């Protein structure tokens, strides 16, 4: 089970009510910074943008590839350890808006983790140290340290 907090809504769907849950200006700022970072090839600048303007935790020597899409509404809920690689076009979400509720959950990605390209990481997930997530995976639950997972949904392949 993912570690998310549920917030019920009434009336229209939760996404229609998004500006009751997060400021329009916060989303705009996040979207602009994330858009710049997505196309920035210089890793130290990219990590600085995330840390400085979005209050994300990004570890030392962490490499976030081109086109990685961070959560635009709650980027401060993303925590990434040291010496981790996040592959091209990966999406990391810390929120999900549903018909009658929205959910928020911190995402923790450990140190020395390798996340393959085009992976989707859902809110409330923890990926342990030294784990490997195969390209194209959908991470719907916690990944223990020192394991290799892959697939949709990501399943245990082997211990490392």
UniProtKB/TrEMBL annotation:
<dbReference type="GO" id="GO:0016740">
    <property type="term" value="F:transferase activity"/>
</dbReference>
<dbReference type="InterPro" id="IPR011004">
    <property type="entry name" value="Trimer_LpxA-like_sf"/>
</dbReference>
<dbReference type="InterPro" id="IPR001451">
    <property type="entry name" value="Hexapep"/>
</dbReference>
<keyword id="KW-0808">Transferase</keyword>
<keyword id="KW-0677">Repeat</keyword>
<protein>
    <submittedName>
        <fullName>Acetyltransferase</fullName>
    </submittedName>
</protein>
<dbReference type="InterPro" id="IPR050179">
    <property type="entry name" value="Trans_hexapeptide_repeat"/>
</dbReference>
<dbReference type="Pfam" id="PF00132">
    <property type="entry name" value="Hexapep"/>
</dbReference>
<dbReference type="InterPro" id="IPR018357">
    <property type="entry name" value="Hexapep_transf_CS"/>
</dbReference>
């Amino acid at each position: 089970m993912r570690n998310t907090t549920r917030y019920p809504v009434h009336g229209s769907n939760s996404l229609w009510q998004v500006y009751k849950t997060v400021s329009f200006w916060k989303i705009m700022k996040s979207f602009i910074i994330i858009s710049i970072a997505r196309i920035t090839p210089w890793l130290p600048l990219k990590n600085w943008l995330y840390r400085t303007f979005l209050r994300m935790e990004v570890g030392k020597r962490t490499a976030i590839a081109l086109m990685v899409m961070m959560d635009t509404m709650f980027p401060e809920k993303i925590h990434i350890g040291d010496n981790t690689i996040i592959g091209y076009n990966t999406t990391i979400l810390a929120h999900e808006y549903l018909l009658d509720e929205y959910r928020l959950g911190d995402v923790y990605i450990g140190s020395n983790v390798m996340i393959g390209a085009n992976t989707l990481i859902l809110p409330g997930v923890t990926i342990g140290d030294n784990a490997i997530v195969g390209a194209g995976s959908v991470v719907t639950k916690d990944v223990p340290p020192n394991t290799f997972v892959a697939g949709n949904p990501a399943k245990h392949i082997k211990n490392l």
